Each structure stands twice: as structure tokens, then as C-alpha cells.
Model the fold of this input.
Amino acid sequence: VGKVERILMMLSMVLILLLVPSTRVNAAPYVAGYLRGNVVTTTKVLGAFSYGDFDLGSVPSGEFLAGVTSVAGANGLTPSGWVYQNGIALFNTGEVWWSPQEYYGDTPGPYHVWPVPVGDNTYAAFYVRMSTDGGTVTNELWAYPTVQDLLDDNPVHYQWSLPAHEANFLVGRQKPGLFAPYIKHFQVGVESNVAITETDWSVDCFEPCWYDGAHWRYYPGYACRGTSSHITWIGWTQYCVGGEVYTGVDKTSSDVDAVGWEYTGTTVGDDALLWSESGTVSDIVSKPYASSSKWGWLPVPSGVGRQ
Amino acid sequence: MRQKFRLGMAISVFAVIATLACVYLWAPQMQVKDVPFLGPGQICDPEIAAQYGVKGYVEIIYPLVSPDLLSVDRGGEINIDILLRFVSYAPELTEARVSIDPKSPFGGTYGKYCSNNGTEIIFNDFISYNASGSITIKAGETMALTMSMRIPEDLPKCISAIPVAAIGFWADVPMTVDLESACGMEVAIRG
Done:
């Protein structure tokens, strides 16, 4: 009997080890807001960011603080496994760089780029929009240097196109299976390559919304952390933006369709309410919300999208 | 009797753990992976890049340019040297194909509005390179290019500077920019 018990104990230990989640290799600290509502399809999503006044010199060289907008690609309501991201990364030089990226699961597409400086930490606002026509994902950024530029709607405009791999984007959340967590298909948040803890930095994220064919809409906003930021799935594998909780980051302000994130030492609760309202967006600027891009839709040239 | 009870308990515990393990292993949440936001520091680190299947990259470098020297008159032209360096992490990846077309949105576009109702001034229209189309760079090699920025005489006064951006490139591997050499670069417009 004792021998059978020992064998059972050993088998139990092996099974318990299988139950322990594997350690992530290169996860990045991340916190975000997501729009909680029934999953819907869309062809355009938008988010905006601004950086607060903090001691940039305390941020170690090479580390960045990025406002990141992420959306899952899909055919109808079925995710394709592709994730489209736009990062607006602030470095300790004060420069802000924009990088539209695409990933199949966790593998970057060939057009992962880090192309252009788009301003600095003093800019009044950066608006990011991702649009798809099924053949091309058009990433656009409108940078407003000053509040006056916001009032006058005079931005510097950047556009970078990438090949699309599916018909549409998804917004809202859904569960792919009984035991699966909710997948939050559209997120707007803050991510670093390593946690920046040397200064009480702050980033405002505002107006995450999607286009329903007539209006830019938002759902109630809730917080997700880097380990609950599931955005899409491929088979039985789910993918989290970031992958690590941004410990010490909390919401310090929130309003309808807006939230301020700050490194305070307190970590925001998972699924904390950010705002409870849903509705349509109104803004003091109009260009990011225009129904069509100035550059229009162009065919994907040969060579683009080659793996 | 006591031994039978202990055996029964052990079997029960095992059965519970085995059931949990089966549910966990067969349930969809079994695997969770991360979607990173990769910067140059990660792409250029072979170990990190390998974790995400990045087999190489093309880096855009601005050599020996002092930001103070970048200014040009309206109607004038300025040339800026650019290096494209291909780094391969995989022996089978021996070359990268880079496309050059500053007029294609797949290489990025940028411009500025001068008033709410005004048209957008597209900076790509001012940019050309001394090469176009598709070029091939061998692993470990660096290719020198010259970017020319021709400023129109009638450029609106509201534009006093144009950021220098690695516009007009796309490749079959990830592309990145050497941030140190590109830091703060813009062309001041005189006059």
C-alpha cells in the first residue's frame, strides 16, 4: 500500500508542476483600458495620448514609455490571429517615436518598423488611427504640438500602410471557450520595454473608440493588466499584450472615454472600472475622425507582405 | 483499516489533481503568449529577437550628421547621407530585399496642415533617393544612399522645419532606425 501511495504522490507532483503556468521569457510591463461590450466588427479604431510633466532625466537611457493602441484582426467575428499595434514611444531625450507594427500571434510581421520621430513629450496630443479595407491596414498619426494647434486642428500627419490579413477588426470582448478568459479585442494602454520606476511618470489615454459606419463609438472602459490583456487567439493559444503586470501603475484620473495612468507605487486592480458610460465621440479636432484618408486606399505593391 | 483509508485518500487526491490537470491541459487557456511591442533595443538583441522569430533586420543609420548643419533655403536642396545595414541572425537568411519609393504609403508618408481648412503639405513630395525600386543587401553589408530634400520656393511660411524621417523604405525583414544617429534631426527652412 505504501508503495502505491508513494507512486500516486509522485504522479500528483508531476501533474501539479504541469498546472503551474510557464514563466514568460521576455514579457513587457503593460496596463491598459479596454472597451467592455459585446464583440462587434469595425474597419476603424482610434486612440489618443499625451504625456504628463515628469522628470525625464530619471528615465534610464534606451528605455521607453509607449502609448500603445492594439486591435485584433478578424474575418467577421472570428479572429485571424493578427494583431495590429501602434506605439508612440517616449525616450529620456524627450523625443517621441511612432511605430506601427503587426504580429501574427507573438511573431512580428516583416514590416515591423520604427520609422519616424513624431514630436516630443511637450506635445499636446497624439491621435492614432488604424483602418482596414481588407487589403491594407492604414496606420495614421496626427501630432498636435500645442494646445493652439488642437484648437486650430493643425496637426502634423503621418501615415504608414501595412498589408491586411483579414476583412475587419474586432472591438469589445468575447470568450472563445468555457474555460477561457475574456478576450479584449481593442486596448489602449501604456507599455515599456522594462518597468520605469525612477519617476512618477504619467500618460493620459483618451477617446478609444471605433467607427460603426456612421459614428465613432465607445463602450464602458475597464482596466486590464499585462497578464489579463488577452487580445486574440490562434487555436488554443491566447495572446496577451505586454505579458507582465505594470506594477505600481494606477489610474489617477478618469472621465468619460479617458483615463490618466501614473506610476504611483499602487497597482490598478484588474477589471477596475474606468468609466461606465457608452456613446458617441465628440472632439475639438476633426481630422483624425474624417471618414476617409487623404492618401486613400492603394493596392499593396509587390514585395510587401513577403515573409 | 487505516492503511485502506490512507490509500483511499491518496487515490482521491490523485483523482482530483488528475481531473484538474486534464481540464487545464485540454482547456483553451492552456497556453498564453505575449504580444510584445518591440523597439530597436529588442530587435537588435539576438537573444530577444530569436524569441519572437526575428531572423534579421535592416537598420537605417544617419552617419556623421550634425543637426546644427541641417538647414536649407526655400527653393533649395539638401542632401543627407543614409546607410542601410542588414544584420542576419540566421545562416539561411543571406540577403534582404529593400524597396525604395518615397511616394508609396507602404514606406510611410508625412505632411502638415497649415490651417484648419487648408490642404496638407506632403513632405514625401520633396524627398528622393539616388536609388529606387528594389535593392538587395547581403548579410553583414552596408549600403550607402543619399536622400535629397528639395524645398519648393512657395512652401508656406507656417512650415519652419521638416523632420528627417526614414520615409520610403520597406523590406522583407523588420526595419529599424539607429535612434542615436537620428535623434533630433530636422531640416530648418530658411527665409
